[in-house]
Amino acid sequence: MSLLERESAGVVMTPDNIRSKRLSVVVNFGIAVAALLLSAAIVLGTGIGNWVLVVVLGLAFYLLGLLFVASRVEGRRAGRDRMWKTLIYSACVLAILPLASVVWTLISKGYSRLDGNFFGSSMNNIGARDPDGGAYHAIIGTLEQVGIATLIAVPLGVLGAIYLVEYGRGKFATTVRFFVDVMTGIPSIVAGLFVLSFWVLIVSPWFNNGQPRFSGFAASLALTVLMLPTIVRSTEEMLRLVPGPLREGAYALGVPQWKTILRVVLPTALPGIVTGVMLAVARAAGETAPVLLVAGGAAAINFDPFAGNQSSLALFVYQQAGDASRYAPARAWTAALTLVAIVLILTVAAKLLARRNSLSK
Amino acid sequence: MGDYPSRSENAVTGDPGVAPRHTRAAGTGVSPSSYDEPPIGGGGALPRKKSFSMESGFRGLSVAAGAMVLVIIVAIAVFLISKAIPALGANTENFLTYTRWFPNESNPAFGIAALAFGTVLTSIIALIVAVPISLGIALFLSHYAPKSLATPLGFTIDLLAAVPSVVFGLWGRDVFQQPVNDFSVWLNKYFSWIPIFGGEGPFGQSIMLGGLVLAIMVLPIVTSLSREVFQQTPGMNEEAALALGATRWEMIRIAVIPYGRPGVIAAVMLGLGRALGETIALALTLGLVFNISFNIIEIGGNSVAANIATTFGEANETGRGALIASGLVLFAITLVVNMAARAIIYRRREFRDSAA
Which CATH architecture has domain B113-303+331-352? Predict the structure, then answer.
């Protein structure tokens, strides 16, 4: 009578024939082993490569074998589905490899100089044959430069975000928002050149008897240029998450808009803003090029960010990497380990803070 | 100017029964100009708008902070141009086509042809390697991995983005160089008939090493942006594809990728912007040689940004101007690439707020 009954007249519906056939895990594994063996036999037999080529060729054979067998068992479309799935999984493994290698190298090579001397002394009077020397001056430089940059960039960035969210309407606001996004892509070396041509070559001679002068403050300005768009963008996102009724409640009580923003909107969004600032600080702490161009780098300790060359941890890594002394690589790796530790602690803390933030969840 | 009728008017018309002004003004209301007193008899409860208040002051401050971004971008262009022009005037060769860099001589001669070539070639290699892998990871994170795996893996990829470039440069030079060197020798042995793998060596600090290190640095940017875009595919589209009997890959091909294409293009362009501007990693991994060669495995290669970092130390005034001129070119290129990418993102409104 009905369509269903007519169709099922000749065929008995059992679990076996309503489910399509699946490739069993054992066969899948078998293809993988066979592919690896075949590739090992070809590569090592003819001597055209080492184990890396065995793995790469093995993966290719596995993909082909899987495509062939799965097409036979499950149909062509399912075979292709399996092939792409394997490719996507292997892309993940491929991306983890360099990260694992970087982390392993940082720990194994950076461990050797992880001592009190490294954190307590500078590179002043350290010659090519001296195994000592440390990054105290560079750590001071990084802290001062990033600190000053944060002091400038945070008020500016938060105010800019307040403009975009609370006041900005129309074309000008759209333009500002667009260029904030564009500014996140400005290369750090260009920010360094900008501060070099603006601050170091034009402004700083006024304070230094007509002579251009490198300083840690100039590096802070360059880092500010790099931090500003990041802070504006993350703060803007957080301010947008503040519920409108909170603002309306404040307005209804007769609170002026500026007070609403300062006393209601900002405190609500504060955890998210702090997260964005920490991510920006982490990015700025790792920048080398601007510090190289406008702070010059120094071997001695310089506490004054407004006068004289200063180093930074990232610049220290770069300079030690280019140093011919046989003790330099150990210093470079230990400084790199310190830098990565600082940056990663900031980043992880920021992300954990973001996870606890009730606004974004 | 005044929001309220003046008091004298009020006294005459509104409140005829009240005594004339001069009788009640004993002590305080000496002058008729005391507009701040509210009018008698209610009405007008709102405070008067002052010409300068906290409100307008705060508003002005925030507008100025917003405008600061535009000011900085314009100032970058203005100051770089102002410092570049004298050096360009002293240049004895064509800045755009000359391949060497001798700006510190008495007859300065410098051009960015080789530098620009190296910049573009390393960036292209980086994108060719990084983009397929990034898209694979992005799809894995958004459509294949269970949530318990996707969260930590996405977190790890974000951490990869946070590692400073100088660390990647150091790693590329001290650790990654050896495998790349072996790979170059192998490529040269079996594929030297392809020009890009030709040459007699020595191999090592080559365009390929720089490009591969760049690829690792570009990877997290492209991955996190494309993942955001893929995750925003409307669930209805995916379910409709699956309901029609599509396999998972077919669903991705017909529902996810077409929907995310503009976002992926923008992500790739942002990655390109990062690759073009990368400085220290390339300064440590390239051979820093001034020539135009398509051979990617022999020692060589240079880039605009790496050249600025490596030759800045010995530059005199013209040399600095020359480096600033090359930085100006880099600024212009990255500005165009970034603006194009952002324009694509802005055209698709749904990407705007999350895919930053």
Answer: Orthogonal Bundle (1.10)
Rounded CA separation B265/B341 (Å): 7
- Do A160 and A147 contact (CB within 8 A), yes or no? no
Give the ipTM of the model, two decimals please: 0.87
Looking at the structure of chain A, the number of domains it has is: 2
Does A200 share its domain with A57?
Answer: no
Q: State which residues form the domain around A72.
A: 21-112
* Residue A171 covered by a domain: yes
Q: What is the DSSP string of A137-189?
A: HHHHHHHHHHHHHHHHHHHHHHHHHHIIIII--HHHHHHHHHHHHHHTTS-HH
* Alpha-carbon torsion angle B219, B179, A283, A321, nearest 10: -160
Which residues have a Cβ under 8 Å from the Cβ of B258 and sit 6 or more positions away? none
**What distance in Å separates residue B12's CA from the closest CA in chain A?**
33
Is B41 in a helix, a strand, or coil? coil
Residues A302 and A221 in one domain: yes
Interface test with A, best of B141, B167, B318, B323 (most A CBs within 10 A): B167
Based on the fold, state whether residues A84 and A130 are members of the same structural domain. no
For residue B186, the chain A residue with the least C-alpha distance is A49
Chain B residues whose beta carbon lies within 8 Å of the beta carbon of residue A91: 132-133, 135-137, 140
Residue B157 corresponds to which tokens in the numbers above?
């990829």
Query: What residue has token string 């008067």?
Result: B48
Please tell me whether residues A71 and A135 are part of one structural domain. no
Residues from chain A contacting residue B64 (CB–CB below 8 Å) = 159
A8 in a structural domain: no
* Domain's final residue, options A112, A140, A164: A112
Among the three residues A59, A92, A112, which one is the final residue of a domain in this structure? A112
Does A98 share its domain with A133? Answer: no
Diameter of chain A measured on Cα atoms? 104
Helix H, strand E, coil C: the string for B306-353 is HHHHHHCCCCCHHHHHHHHHHHHHHHHHHHHHHHHHHHHHHHCHHHHC
Q: How far apart are the first and last CA of chain A?
A: 54
For chain B, give every domain's residue range. Answer: 113-303+331-352
Nearest-Cα distance to chain B for A9, in Å, is: 25
Q: Which of B52, B62, B144, B351 to mutate to test the interface with A (most CBs of A within 10 A)?
A: B62
Is residue A256 within 8 Å of B57, Cβ to Cβ?
no
**Chain B contact set for A259 (CB, 8 A):** 54
Distance (Å, rounded) from C-alpha B356 to C-alpha B167?
25
How far is it, in rounded angstroms, from Cα A31 to Cα A26?
A: 9
Do the Cβ atoms of A92 and B219 come within 8 Å?
no
Question: Is residue A170 located within the same domain as residue A305?
Answer: yes
Q: How far apart are CA A180 and CA A173, in angstroms?
A: 10
Contacts with A199 from chain B: Cβ below 8 Å: none
Q: How many helices, marked H, and strands, marked E, lie in chain B?
A: 15, 2
Calculate how close chain B gets to A287, using CA atoms only, in Å. 7
User: What is the token pair recorded at B34?
Assistant: 């005391």
Cα A284–chain centre separation: 11
CB atoms A186 and B277 under 8 Å? yes
Pair (A123, A272) in one structural domain: yes
pLDDT in tens, chain A (361 residues): 444 444 455 566 666 666 667 778 888 899 999 998 998 888 888 878 788 888 989 999 999 999 988 888 888 888 899 899 999 999 988 888 888 899 899 999 988 888 888 888 888 888 777 888 888 999 999 999 999 999 999 999 999 999 999 998 889 999 999 999 899 889 999 999 999 999 988 888 888 888 888 999 999 999 999 999 999 999 999 999 999 999 999 999 999 999 999 999 999 999 889 989 998 999 899 999 999 999 988 888 888 888 888 999 999 999 999 888 888 888 999 999 999 999 999 988 888 888 777 666 5
